[in-house]
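Sequence and structure are no longer studied apart. As an example, we show below a sequence and the tokens encoding its fold:
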Amino acid sequence: MKVPFFKLSCGDNEYAYVRDVLDSGWLTTAGKAQEFELRFAECVGAKYAVAVNSCTAALHLALDALDVKQGDRVFVPTMTFTATAEVVNYLGAHPVFLDCDYLTRNITPAILRDAITRCPDIKVLMLVHFGGHPAQLLDDENGDEGILAICKRHGIRIVHDAAHAFPAQIDGKSIGGFPDISCFSFYANKTITTGEGGMLATDDEAVYARAKLMRLHGIDRDVWDRFTSSKAGWEYDVVAPGYKYNMPDLAAAVGLAQLENASLFRAARQRCAEVYFARLGSIEAIDLPRSDVSHEDHAWHLFPITLNSSASIERDSLIQELTQAGIGTSVHYKPLHRMTYYRDRYQLRKEKFPSAERLWSGTLSLPLYPTMTNEQLQYVCDQLWRLAGSSCSSLKSAA
């Protein structure tokens, strides 16, 4: 049986909306992108949304809008994709890397409090909602401060790296509706896709205005306004040294169709996760991800598992065996403190990141997509039982 790591889900409207754009003769940023912005903002409960060509672009625009500049310091989790940190360097600022919780892979209030004690001059927190699991933003049932309250008390702005987190929510409020800025990814394997693309969402009008301006070369009129306005299209001003980050209508058309099915896609991914929890929970060698929110509030972009110290097979060997069995996997992530650039520039030592190190040695992500069949799910679980059970000591010794 073949089980890919990811498989695209799309229907008739993706084709229909793209055909509309092609028939219009206007392929770049225009009416479809504006419609996508409006509908996405409504979906996540934000006042404003800015469509861009990647989540990386959204993160960069977010830090620019918060006036992060040369020499500033920004908290970044080590367990994330490089984009979360690299945009800090774009502006001449410096990432300060934080460890994560072992089972959720998120920054916790305790981790944040300790980091502030050591680095009180932090300007912004880049908060990753790993795998679609919302970080602990709100105060807990005992009244202990959540991340929002801690950041507010210390004057730290939050950029939510929500690349994994659409349409996750906390207590009925979507990630995207919380302060200060949320950045989403529509990369090919994300929970909804535009092929390449992203979105910045915020309630802050000044942030919105700055991001919209900088998205397209710092020009004071976007191209659709210049086309539809009675004012001459060639008449515009450059008021800032902006970027080329706009989302074309071709991509937005796909996004609009995907957005229509976002809740169905999420429920289908949850179905897959529930099977994994039920079938794999009693394998002693595997630590499953912990969900601190209801399964309905989780986006389920990823289902990462971790081989623990009792496992008799190593992670790389397990991946190789699963590949030979026709099962696609991935690793999320090699932590940034192990990447040459960050390790060497910031003199990072792995001993400072014990949870990330523990994860790195054993983590892999299982296939998870809306159209996975029950037969595929059971096959993945059967192979994990075969390979990660108590009878696999010979595999490790052979490796």
User: Anything to note?
Assistant: The longest helix spans residues 262-280. Confidence is low (pLDDT under 50) at residues 391-399. The longest strand covers residues 48-52.
